[in-house]
Amino acid sequence: MTRRTFLASGASALAAAPRAPGFRLADVTARAGIEFRHNSGAFGLKYLPETMGPGCAFIDYDGDGWLDILISNGMDWPGHKKQRTTPRLYRNNRDGTFTDVTREAGLAIEIYGMGVAVADYDNDGWPDILFTGVGQNRLFKNTGKGHFIDVTEKAGLGGRSAFSTSAFWFDYDRDGLLDLFVCNYVRWSPEHDVFCSVDGKHKSYCTPEAYRGSTCWLFRNRGNGTFEDVTAKSGVFDASSKSLGVALIDYDRDGWPDIVVANDTQPNKLYRNARNGTFEEVAVRAGLAFSEDGKARAGMGIDVADFQNSGVQGIAITNFDNEMMALYQGGAAGSYADIAIKSGVGQLSRTSLGFGCVFFDADLDGRLDLVAANGHIDATVRNIRSNVGYAQPPHMFLNEGGGMFRDVAREVGAEFSTPKVARGVACGDFDRDGDVDVLVTTNQGPAYLYRNDVSNGNRAIRFKLTGLKSNRDAIGSVVRVFTPDGAQLRMVKTGSSYLSQSELAVTFGLGRRESADRVVIEWPSGRTDEFKGLRAGSYECVEGQAPKS
């Protein structure tokens, strides 16, 4: 080899070297004062809900502009009582630490909890909380005085027992009132538990095939504090579903919110809003129902975002191990193609059992990245498959552009990449430094708070929206930010991930740019607001008014 060819080969190797992530995810759980441990209630009989774990959410419950933390929890089963466990609400002290205010907030209640969904359903300016779980779901109204009251019965949501999982708030009829969609998993109760076994002698955790499915529920907000069950007449009734994740999407880009549901061992569902109070299920037509080889996978978590900056929302769905994560690219004709293998996400997630997943711009470069929490359902999995663990490392897929992703979990933090039996994931800027932080829950274990430290000099522009004619939380709004690099799109939404909810504010990475050329907000009411020359920073936008920093 000549000196010239040696130098040329070295330059080529340097050019091909992957870029540094430009951020780190630091474990600040202990110093933040987040002392939580999930109670699955497990006592040896291996009940199905014990494998599912808790959800989490970022919520500004006291309206001080700082994100607080909410975590669901399970409880001991009747007849096997050893301890009292409740959800936890942690108030942000604005200095990187949190205080447990569960009891004074009125949330120290026992419920076999699964998911959380947060929104201002009565448009009074204060975020309310829905807990889903095994048995009766519970709705808590925020009084605005640091306290919540249980309004489940008063709201008309009582008298329903199910195995409920993820849920989300959205305004499907665009009347300015938030409606409620609740996922239900399977028809299970302790009295109807099925004996499943690998060796025929010892009980093991059942797969969902052992139980019949259960329909999701849709409740229409009447505007007087009560809800009407419109599951049947809206067209979403389907007793074959085994639903774990749900996300808001406008897949046909008509300005009306649609619903996409991740199902476990059953086809995924896509409910197209017919704009008349009903939905049409179109997942097969859209290419979302099955894997590329025509099989229903074990869908767990889900998120929707324009990860290619194409103006079209794509979809990520986590699945069981050896099934790969799905990454659907949206097409112009309302159809989707799974590009998981092509993008690199497929092979990297093949041995993972994924749960929560969230798109967010971790490095603020203007491209949405994807975090996914992983962990198996049974500690004995190593005895069955040597390449699959019970505790599993998360994925932190860095968007490289051109539809390609690279897993940088190990590069962004040794504590973050440590294997866990992880379940829920939520994202939010809890320290108000402009980048988005990550909250993770585990099954029968602690919750983890990871502070995002962006080190590449990139800037962000953030928007917190308040509706006037639209619902107050502006859920369903679409925000577009334009720079010389192109356009980015974000939708204000609840739900997504798995049992969890990220902050409602939307964040756009600007890279090294100091401002956005143009910002366009499309409100659910049909109004469009446009602003020019907004500098990097955080803005509060009220429908029809100029933004305030």
Describe the secondary-structure layout.
Blueprint: H1 3-16, E1 23-27, H2 29-32, E2 56-59, E3 68-71, E4 88-92, E5 98-100, E6 113-119, E7 128-136, E8 138-142, E9 148-150, E10 161-170, E11 179-184, E12 196-197, E13 203-204, E14 217-221, E15 227-229, H3 231-234, E16 243-249, E17 258-263, E18 269-273, E19 279-281, H4 283-286, E20 302-305, E21 314-317, E22 326-330, E23 336-338, H5 340-343, H6 345-348, E24 354-360, E25 369-374, E26 395-401, E27 404-407, E28 422-428, E29 437-442, E30 447-454, E31 459-466, E32 478-483, E33 486-491, E34 506-511, E35 515-522, E36 528-535, E37 537-542
Parallel strand pairs: 31-37
Antiparallel strand pairs: 1-30, 2-3, 3-4, 4-5, 6-7, 7-8, 7-10, 8-9, 10-11, 11-14, 12-13, 14-15, 16-17, 17-18, 18-19, 20-21, 21-22, 22-23, 24-25, 25-26, 26-27, 28-29, 29-30, 31-34, 32-33, 32-35, 35-36
3D structure, described in words:
The chain has 549 residues and is mainly β. It is 6% helix and 37% strand. It contains six helices and 37 strands. The strands form nine sheets. Strands 6, 7, 8, 9, 10, 11, 14 and 15 form an eight-stranded antiparallel β-sheet that branches. Strands 1-30-29-28 form a four-stranded antiparallel β-sheet. The chain has a four-stranded antiparallel β-sheet with strand order 2-3-4-5, with no helix packed on it. Strand 20 and strand 21 form a beta hairpin. The longest helix has 14 residues. The N terminus is likely disordered.
- The number of helical segments is 6
Class from helix and strand fractions = mainly beta
Stretches where pLDDT is under 50 for at least 5 consecutive residues are: 1-15
The main pleated sheet reads as:
8 strands, antiparallel
User: What level of helicity do the residues show?
Assistant: under 10%
Roughly what is the average pLDDT, rounded to an integer?
Answer: 95
> Percent of residues in beta strands?
35-45%
The 3D shape can be described as: globular
Q: Count the beta strands.
A: 37
User: End-to-end span in angstroms?
Assistant: 60 Å
Please state the CA-atom Rg, rounded to the nearest Å.
22 Å
